Amino acid sequence: MDASLAELLRAAPGRWAWDARRLADGYRTAYRAEDIRPAASLIKLGILAAAWDRIERGAARLHDRLAWEPEEAVPGSGVLKDLVPSPWRLADLLTLTVTVSDNTAANVLLRWLGRDAVNHTMATLGMTRTVLANPFERLAVPRAGYNHTTARDMTELVQRMVTGTAISRTASQHMTDLLRRCQAPCAFAPAPRPLAPGVTATWPVVGHKTGRLDRLRADTGFVFGPAGGFVLTLIGDEAPAGRLGPWLFRLGRALLAHLERAPRVRQAL
Hints:
The chain has one domain: DD-peptidase/beta-lactamase superfamily (Beta-lactamase, 3-Layer(aba) Sandwich). A hairpin with a 2-residue loop joins β10 (216-225) and β11. The strands form four sheets. Strands 2-1-11-10-9 form a five-stranded antiparallel sheet. The protein has a two-stranded antiparallel sheet with strand order 3-6. A two-stranded antiparallel sheet has the order 4-5. It starts with a helix and ends in an 8-residue tail after the last helix. It has helices at 3-11, 44-56, 90-99, 103-113, 115-124, 151-162, 169-180, 241-261, and strands at 15-22, 28-31, 37-38, 65-66, 88-89, 148-149, 194-196, 199-200, 205-213, 216-225, 228-237. The longest helix has 21 residues, at 241-261. The chain is globular. α2 packs across α4 and α3 packs across α4 (103-113). The protein is an alpha+beta fold.
């Protein structure tokens, strides 16, 4: 492991896992990447992929409308719970699920898709140790297990999205566009800042999805900049989220810096 990463890891609270890759040559740094961890809202990307699988098979359209009832509203992140129940466009529910991590929108999609369909889609995309067992924020009902994933699985999914191989090239483009619109701060790189009114910096291009529980902070996503393209997942748990949060950013930025400066991997002839 890189010395600077090892030093940060020794000082950080809780336990950590990551899988970070450089797309140009396949260079990878990983730490406990196969460890099963609570998925939190990272697993909403599995719901996103399953929805696009249904769309690409011709069984749904983005302008289809899905109804929901007031009793389906759940606490936690998002805004749908505070709005008047109405049939919502599938496109809007997907947008809310990713950009503001809306729990109610995610649950409406999960009911529509079915848990088995989501898990099947994730498995076909190489997420072999990821399972969606329960809806979000419904602690009053019996738990069938817990939603879990690994850093490797999440990075594999994001890499497929950015390389156009998650469901289809069209689906991948739509999914990465939603990741770019995530409203939470990114652990790996800051979003482009406006240079002048109406003008936005070209670099970096950042897309990601965060996850948070009482004792977990996580982020998964991609960064494209002058130094190349990178996909990264970082998960910290077993400490209060308030303590893990600052370290998520310290370790995330350190991971990106390591990928940028690591020697190039010689490609086999």
